[in-house]
Design brief:
779 residues, alpha+beta, Phosphoribosyl-aminoimidazole Synthetase, Chain A, domain 2, 26 helices, 25% strand
Length: 779
């Protein structure tokens, strides 16, 4: 039994506030323990029952995700998902958030976000091969948002560059809703190096529990609870809850862990991430249906006189917990010592299903594993049946609400004056959310490991070459994997269901645009408080959309992260929620990485084609054009026909693999005109475009979004073969997919005609200057 002298008196109401627990939670804890918890135990429950660790508000919604597929080897429940990518190679991948830490300590918050997701990958026995990030900040006209952006980018660059894992892609968006509450989502990929996938469930009663890696300090204490509460003006006081990372220790830890896993002497492994020792010990015990005892006196520490509470809730970085074979423990310790790391036996696996913690000769915590890990509270919340009235009102918006247009100019509701089409294109290209992120990408090492096929920004998805072992004297063909992270949060804020379906579709579309087959997703659900009925309705609608889209596109969910309470409270107690942001991390496979294509035009006079769906709506509503040019965030996002989406992507992939298509780029923010301009900028080549009028509004044709559309170019030397290929490979007649030629690659200018009438003519140098200098001008 737990030693009574450790049941110190404490102020219950203050302790519950600190741990983000309710009185009902406390009553449930007492019921499960059959006694009152001491302060250390209450802290353990606080982190393990937080949204960050147990998904108490989101678990009922996540349970409906499709999680199985022909390529899925490990789905939700382990440190990361695992898929088969062919050639006896297995890809491990996951996405995680570090939002609140980055809000108050941007450099370390972002850096440790990278370190944490990398540990999720190599804990499974995989070598990390790539990192992508999805970032959201408030508008750059506020100096505080610029400072957050600088700090986050520096933190990501520092950790990734030092640890030697390439940062190969991502997305960055700016909106006032993220002011003071930036989103820092990091996705990592790894290639399995062990014969067996390393899992987290403890086995074999009496097996030693081995602590490896860095020392434990007071940094990061209570980080999981901090991540599961809203940000306030007092949040700077929570800086001690932010961890401090060391990428050079992480690099040693990667090598030492992979060496150890390859011996087969590690029975189970768990990263000490959120909730540190508490989470890793409880989850290992629960996943193995056993118990664990730990002696805190044996834990390597960097500070004197640490309390049991601090040991157990510290989130000091670069630490792992293993269950190992008893007869091999000394060899494993020697291996970690060789890499300059700590390795101490701190406990053992026990047959009673409890986590038992001792310190200075006393038992300071004794809790059933089920109470901490696999039988945690679930909040069943009612979901409103109908969309909120404010959204229904926005959905009433129609294009006729915009000013009349003439052949050459459009009146801006935002700036109260008229602009030519060329001026509008340049204005959209210079908006920070659309403009080049080169200033950011150039801080990342994208080429380390020498397997990155395209630099960030060159292609719709990142492509990583996988080196396949082949027989001697045979040509080497390298397979590859592609990855993309996507979410149009404006669309999700205006319609969580349609917007999230679009996020899944776009992420798959981007993977298809490089020639890879979308296989599976991981997701990061960034939402505001689930205690608000609109916030919970947004989360529920988004989860339903992920289920529907992933089933239709056959891209199951292998895991992910939920980050709630993303809202900030000012000194007047006014709460500002972020735009709901369900980031989709899509991975795909390609048999021959040399077949992968980028977005820029390749050759003068190559034909430019467009593929899309008539059933998938195309509209100015909810568009970047409507927001950035007219200053209106309204309308209902376009509906996507998922069957046509799948057909468009499949047709394009086959055309790429048959070497007809030499470049491809999906049409997203800014519509057709911006997608074409981006291809011109990337290639330093022009385009001559001639399209048919589809309505009385040229701005609809140029700047509307939706339609599952992709522009691609055909090798000028294969035009005859391409036309024959089109005739033979007609898309299912029951679909409404169309494919049409819209122009050709030219030398110096970007020219658009609508039914032979010139709409714009812009030199590529002018496009490039606007696109490249928008964000960098803030620094």
């Amino acid at each position: 039994m737990i030693n009574s002298q450790n049941n110190d008196l404490y102020d219950l109401s203050e302790a519950l506030k600190v741990e983000n627990l309710t009185v009902n939670d406390y009553d449930e804890i007492c019921k499960r323990l059959k006694r009152t918890p001491n302060r250390t135990e209450l802290g353990m429950f606080g982190v393990m029952w937080s949204e960050h660790c147990c998904y108490r508000n989101s678990k009922p919604l996540l349970s409906n995700f499709p999680t199985k597929g022909k390529n899925v080897l490990v789905g939700p429940g382990e440190n990361a998902g695992v898929i088969d990518v062919g050639n006896n190679q297995k890809l491990v991948f996951k996405i995680e958030s570090h939002n609140h830490p980055s809000a108050i300590e941007p450099f370390q918050g972002a850096a440790t976000g990278v370190g944490g997701i990398l540990r999720d990958i190599f804990t499974m026995g995989a070598r990390p091969i790539a990192v992508l990030n999805s970032l959201r900040f408030g508008n750059l006209d506020k100096p505080s948002n610029v400072d957050l952006l600088r700090g986050v980018v520096s933190g990501i660059a520092h950790y990734g560059n030092c640890v030697g894992v390439p940062t190969v892609g991502g997305e960055i968006d700016f909106d006032d809703s993220y002011s003071g509450n930036p989103l820092v989502n990091v996705m990592a990929l790894g290639l399995l190096e062990t014969n067996e996938i390393v899992c987290s469930g403890a086995k074999n009663v009496g097996s030693p529990v081995l602590y490896v890696g860095n020392t434990t300090g007071r940094d990061g204490v209570g980080g999981a609870s901090f991540a599961s509460s809203e940000l306030t003006t007092a949040s700077l006081d929570d800086r001690p809850a932010v961890q401090v990372g060391d990428p050079f220790v992480e690099k040693s830890l990667i090598e030492a862990c992979l060496d150890s896993f390859k011996t087969g002497d590690v029975i189970a492994a768990q990263d000490m991430g959120a909730a540190g020792l508490t989470c890793s010990s409880a989850e290992m015990a629960a996943n193995g249906n056993l118990g664990i005892s730990i002696n805190l006196d044996l834990v390597p520490s960097r500070e004197k006189n640490m309390s049991p509470y601090q040991y157990l809730l510290s989130e000091s970085q670069e630490r792992m917990l293993f269950v190992v074979k008893e007869e091999k423990v000394n060899e494993l310790i020697e291996n970690f010592t060789k890499w300059g790391l700590y390795a101490n036996v701190i406990g053992e696996v026990i047959d009673t299903k409890e986590v038992i913690i001792s310190h200075k000769g006393n038992i300071v915590a004794q809790i059933p594993t089920s109470a901490l890990s696999d039988d945690t509270p679930v909040n069943i919340r009612p979901v409103i049946n109908d969309p909120p009235v404010y959204l229904l009102n926005k959905w009433e918006w129609k294009e006729k609400n915009l000013p009349e247009i003439d052949e050459q100019q459009i009146f801006s509701l935002k700036e109260k004056k008229s602009f030519s089409y060329s001026q509008i294109i340049l204005k959209l290209l210079s908006n920070p959310s659309i403009a080049s992120k080169r200033w950011i990408y150039k801080q990342y090492d994208s080429q380390v490991q020498a397997n990155t096929v395209f630099k960030p920004g060159e292609s719709d998805a990142a492509v990583i070459r996988l080196r396949v072992q082949t027989e001697k004297n045979k040509n080497k063909v390298f397979s590859g994997v592609a990855a993309s992270v996507d979410c149009n949060s404006r669309w999700v804020s205006l319609d969580p269901f349609r917007g999230t379906i679009a996020a899944v579709a776009e992420s798959a579309r981007n993977v298809s645009c490089v020639g890879a087959e979308p296989v599976a997703i991981t997701n990061n659900l960034n939402f505001s408080s689930p205690e608000n009925e609109i916030g919970y309705w947004q989360l529920s609608s988004s989860c339903k959309a992920i289920s529907e889209a992933c089933k239709a596109l056959e891209t199951p969910v292998t895991g992910g992260n939920v980050s709630l309470y993303n809202e900030s409270k000012n000194k007047d107690n006014k709460i500002t929620p972020i735009n709901p942001t369900p980031v989709i991390g899509m991975v795909g496979k390609i048999d021959n990485a040399e077949k992968a294509i980028s977005s820029e035009w390749k050759n003068l006079n190559d034909q430019i084609w467009l593929i899309g769906s008539h059933k998938s709506e195309i509209t100015i509503a909810a568009s970047s054009y409507l927001e950035y040019f007219h200053g209106e965030i309204t309308g209902r996002p376009p509906k996507i026909d998922l069957l046509d989406e799948k057909l468009c992507q499949g047709f394009l992939r086959n055309a790429i693999l048959n070497s007809f298509v030499v470049s491809a780029h999906d049409i997203s923010d800014g519509g057709l005109a911006i997608a074409l301009a981006e291809c011109c900028i990337l290639s330093s080549k022009g385009a001559s475009i001639d399209v048919e009028k589809v309505s009385n509004r040229n701005d609809n044709l140029l700047f509307a979004e939706g339609g599952s559309r992709i522009i691609f170019s055909i090798d000028k030397n294969k035009e005859k073969e391409w036309l024959k290929y089109l005739k033979i490979n007609q898309i299912n007649s029951q679909s409404s997919v169309y494919i049409k030629k819209i122009g050709y690659v030219s030398s110096e200018t970007f020219n658009i005609k609508i039914q032979e009438q010139n709409i714009c003519n812009i030199r590529v140098e002018e496009l490039t200057e606007k696109f490249n200098n928008s964000i960098s001008g803030h620094f």
